[in-house]
Amino acid sequence: MTRFLVRRALWFAFTLWLVVSLSFVLMRSVRGGPFSAERALHPSIERSLEARYHLDWPLWKQYLQYLGPLDWGEHGHRWAGGDGAHPYGGILALDLGPSFKYRDFSVDDILAQSVPISATLGALALLVALVLGLPAGILAAVKRGTWLDLALRCTATLGIALPNFVIAGLLVLAFAFGLGLLPPAGWGEPRHLVLPAFVLGAPFAAYVARLTRAGMLEVLSQDYIRTARAKGLSARTVLVRHALRAGILPVVSYLGPATAGILSGSLVVEKIFAIPGLGAHFVNSALNRDYTLAMGVTLFYTVLVVALNTLVDVVYTLLDPRIELGTSA
Amino acid sequence: MRLARAAWRRLRRERAALACLVFLLGIALVALLAPLLPLCSPVALALSGEPRPPEAVLGNQAWPQRVSLRFELFESPRSRESLVRLERTLLDLVRGIAGETPRVFRLGTGVEIRALELALLYRPELDPARGSDLAARVASELARASQDGKLRIPGGGDARVTFAGLTAQDAYGPLGRFDRWLLRQRLALFGFFQTGHWLGTDAKGRDLLARCVFGSRVSLSVALAGALVSLLVGVTYGALAGYSGGRTDERLMRLVDVLYAIPFLFVVIFVLTLLNEYRSELARLGIGRMSAFFVVLGLVTWLTMARVVRGQVLVLRQQEFVQAARVLGASHARILLVHVLPHLLGLVVVYLTLTLPSVMLYEAFLSFLGLGVEAPQVSWGLLAADALDALNPLRTAWWLVLGPALFLGSTLLALNVLGDGLRDALDPRARSGASRSGA
After folding, report:
1. pLDDT, tens digit, for every residue of B133-161?
2. Residue B88 contacts by C-beta under 8 Å, 6 or more apart in sequence?
3. Is A81's pLDDT higher than 50?
4. Which of A132-136, B106-110, B321-325 is modeled with the greatest confidence?
C-alpha cells in the first residue's frame, strides 16, 4: 500500500518535472526573448530588463532559478521565495513570475483573480455532467433495447460528436435570442451560469451516460446480481444496493480525463460567454505572446490535471477490491 | 484478407455505420471537386454591409468570376446617344480582340458616368499578366481608333484602359493546376450559372454555402494529414515497444502513461504561439503554417494508437509465424515490416477513424480560438467563430451559426458513428463504452 502510494507520488513528481522542463526549453527557445517582440527598446533598457528578469544568466542558472526557491543572485545562496526583492521565487515556491504584458501583475495575481471564476464554472459543469449522465446511463441500461435506450444513446453520440462551440451557438440562439430567457453572455449573476455550465458539461454528460450504461450492463449480467434477484430482493434494492456501486466504477476513473476535458473546454466556453476566467486569460496570453502567463497557466492546468488523475487512480484502486496494489496499471 | 472480408460482412450489418461511410465519402468528394460545383465565389466580397438570410432561389446569373477592363472617362458623355455609341465601339473592339462579347457595366451616378467596365467571362488560362496584356492591346486599338477619328472620346485625351477585374486568384484564392482544370470544366458545364444563397451570406456578402464547401477542404485535409502523422508516430512507437518487450516496453509505455496525464490543448496552444514567432524561418524551409499545424496536431493524438498497437504486437510476437521467421534468420526490421505490420491493418484503420474526429475537433477548437487556420483560408471552426462573433441581439444572423454547425456536426457525428461501428466489427473486445478516452 505505502509502496504503491510512494510510487504514484514519484510518477507525479516526474510528470511535473517533465512538463516544467519542457516548457522552460520551449520558452527560452523563443527568438530574442520576451521583450524584443513588442517594439524596439533602447539597448540599455533592454539590458536592464534582461538583468531584472535574469535573462542574461547562463541557461542552467536560469533553469535552476526558475525551478527552485534557491536564490542564485549576487547575495549568495539562500531560500528566497519571491519576496518582491527578487522577481522570481521559482516554481517550488509557487511563484510563476511576472506577467510580461500586464504591467505590475504577477502571474500569481492573475491566477488568484481568475481561478475562482473558472473553478465555479468547472465544478458546475462537472455537476451537470454527473446529474445528467448518471441517471441517463442507468436508465438506458435498465431499459435496454427499448426506444428509450435508443434515444438516450443517440443523444449521447450527438453530445460526444458535437463540439461545444456548436452547441453553444445553437443554445444561445434558442434561449438568449429566440426565447429571451437567459442572457447571452456575461458574468456576475446566477442566471449567467446556466448556459455556460450546460454547454461545458454536455459532452461529458454524454460520456458519463455511455460509460454508466456499459458499466451497468456488465454488472447486471453478473452472477451476484442474479443471486440477489433470486433471494427475492426488489428490483430497486438490487439496482441501488448491488449493481450501482460496481456499475459506476468506470465513471470514477473517467473523472480525471473529464476534468482535463472540462478545463480545455472552458477555453472556448469562457471566450463565447465573455467570462473573465482563466481560460480566457490563457487564450489572450497566447495571442498576445505573454509567455510567462501562458506557461504559468499551462503549468497550473497540468499540475491540476496530473494531480487529479493521480488522485482518481488511487481512489479507484482503493474502491475496487479486484485490483492488486503491487502491480501498477 | 479473410479478416477484412469478415469485418466487411459484419460492418454491412451495421446500417448506421454504413450510411455514415457513404455520407463521409460524399463529403470528401464534394470537398475534392469543390471548384467543379456551380457555387458562388467563397471569397468575392459584395460590400452590402449586412448578412443576408438564406433565400429559396435556385440560382442566379451574377458574375462571380470575370475579367473586367476598366475604361476611364475624363468627362461624362453629354448625351445618352454618345454613351451608347461609345459603349458599342468599345464592345466591338474587345470582341475583336478577345473573341467574346463582354458585358458592359456603367460606373458612376446616373447623371455622371465616370467609367465603363467591360466584363468577360473568366477563363482560367487568362491569368493577371495576360489580363493586363489584353488591356494594353485594347488601349492601343482605342488610341488608333481615336486617331483615325472613328471614336470620339468625351473630354478628349488618351483613353486609359486598365485591367481591373476579379481574377481566379481573387475569386478562389490561389488555385492549383487540378483546381484550375476543374474550374474550366465548371464553366463549360454551367456557364454563368451559380447557386442562390441557400445558406445565406455573411456580413461581407460572401456566400455561406460556398464558404462551407471550400472550408471542408481545409478541415478535412488537416484532419486527414494530422491523423496520418498520428498514425505514423503511434504505430512506430507502439510496434517498437511491443516488439522489444521487457524493460524497454515497460519504460516506453510508462512514458505514454505520463503523457496521457498532460492536458495537451494547452501545450498545443503554447507551441503554436511559439511557432508563430518562427513563421518566416519555417517558410524559408518550405514548411507552411498549415503543415506545422497538422504535424503538431498529429503529435498530440498518437497515444491511444501506440497503446493499442503495442498490445496487438505483444500478442503477435508470440505467434508461431513470427517465431518461424526468426528461426529462419529474418532480421528484426523484416519481421516487423513484413510479418507483423500487415496484421495490424484492421486495428489501425479502426483507430484512424477514431483519430480523425479528434484531430478535426482540435483543428476546429484552435481555429475557433484564432490560433489555427487563418483568414484567407476558411475552415468550419473559423466559420463557427465568425458566426458567434456576429451574433448580437440587434440582428440575429442565425443562419451563420447554422451552416457551419450543420457541416461540422454532421461530419463529426458520422466519423464517430463509423468509428464505433468499425471498432465493434473489427475489434470486438474493445466495446465503445469501455474505452478510455480523454479529451
Report:
1. 666 777 777 777 766 666 666 555 455 56
2. none
3. no
4. A132-136
pLDDT-derived band of residue B59, with 50, 70 and 90 as boundaries?
Answer: low
Grade residue B77 by pLDDT with cuts at 50, 70 and 90.
low
- Of B81, B46, B76, give the one whose Cα is nearest residue B60: B46
Q: Which of A96-100, A210-214, B142-146 has the lowest mean pLDDT?
A: A96-100
CA nearest A253 in B: which residue? B436
Gap between the Cα atoms of A151 and A139, Å rounded: 11
- B250 with A327: CB under 8 angstroms? no
pLDDT in tens, A278-303: 888 888 777 776 777 777 887 788 78
Regarding predicted confidence, which is higher, B51 or B307? B307
- At A40 the pLDDT is 64
Angle, CA A29 vertex, CA A27 and CA A35 arms, to 5°: 70
Does B430 touch chain A if contact means CB atoms closer than 8 Å? no
Instruction: Using DSSP, state whether B68 is helix, strand or coil.
Output: strand
Query: Are A268 and B431 an interchain contact pair (Cβ–Cβ within 8 Å)?
Result: no
Give the list of residues 6+ apart from residue B92 with CB closer than 8 angstroms, or none: none
The residue among B319, B268, B270, B322 whose CA lies nearest residue B296 is B268
Q: Which helix (H) or strand (E) holds B107?
A: strand B103-108
Q: What is the pLDDT of residue B28?
A: 93
The Cβ of residue A92 has, within 10 Å, a number of other Cβ atoms equal to 14
pLDDT at B248 over 70: yes
Cβ count within 10 A of residue B322: 19
pTM of the model: 0.75
Distance (Å) from the alpha carbon of B20 to chain A's nearest alpha carbon = 13
Q: Do the chains contact at A214 and B434, CB–CB below 8 Å?
A: yes
A265 touches chain B (CB under 8 A): yes
Across chain B, what does the average pLDDT equal? 76
A218 closest CA partner among B319, B43, B298, B432? B432
The four Cα atoms B251, B254, B258, B261 give a dihedral, to 10 degrees, of 160
Q: CA angle, B28 as apex, B388 and A159 as ends, to 5°?
A: 45
SS3 A64: helix
Phi, psi torsion values for B141, nearest 5 degrees: -60, -40
Chain A contact set for B261 (CB, 8 A): 15, 256, 305-306, 309-310
Residue A133 touches chain B, beta carbons under 8 Å: no
Question: What confidence tens digit (pLDDT) does each residue in B347-368 have?
Answer: 888 888 888 888 888 888 888 8
Average pLDDT over residues B280-307: 81
Quote the CA–CA distance of A57 and A64 in Å, as a whole number: 11
Kindly list the strands in the beta sheet with B103-108, ordered across the sheet, starting from the edge strand earlier in the chain.
B103-108, B113-121, B66-72, B160-163
Looking at the DSSP bridge assignments, the partners of residue B68 are B119
The answer to whether A305 faces chain B, any CB pair under 8 Å, is yes
Q: How would DSSP label each residue in A297-322?
A: HHHHHHHHHHHHHHHHHHHHHHH-TT
Q: Measured between CB atoms, does A215 come within 8 Å of chain B?
A: yes
| B240's grid cell | 517498437
| CA–CA dist A221, A217 (Å, integer) | 6
**Nearest Cα to Cα of residue B46 among B209, B207, B210, B212:** B207
- Counting Cβ atoms within 10 Å, is residue A214 exposed (0-12), middle (13-18) or buried (19+)? buried
Which grid coordinates belong to B404?
Answer: 457551419
Does the beta carbon of A14 lie under 8 angstroms from any beta carbon of chain B? yes
Amino acid at B19: A
Amino acid (one-letter) located at A224: Y
